[in-house]
Amino acid sequence: MKICVTSEGKTMDSPVDSRFGRCRNFIFFDTDTGGFEAQENSGLQFQGGAGIQAGQLAVSKGVTAVLTGNVGPNAYRVLSSAGISVFTGISGTVKDAVEGYRNGKYKAAEAPGAALKSGTRVKNE
Cα 8 from chain centroid? Predict the structure, then answer.
């Protein structure tokens, strides 16, 4: 099974990014093999639709769950319509988030969080 964790970096020790559509990176973790793939979020560059694009990426990667701090309504709609469970309020490192998920620590969100647009875009550095 493959899960997606939003991340500020590209390793399992990176902090979980609190945003879904505008996170810096995605970590795609395979719970069967323990392997992972880090991918930069190209949606950071878009004026709008970042959440939808991020949701479509998760769907295309075949994930069954997304672990993040917050997910807006558009991304939530894409994910939930594809049967992907969304877990919000996640913090700590990516490794901690994966372990919490494996241990059944989290409850799937039943609704999206607020659409965080203003002041959440990351400037290119």
Answer: 11
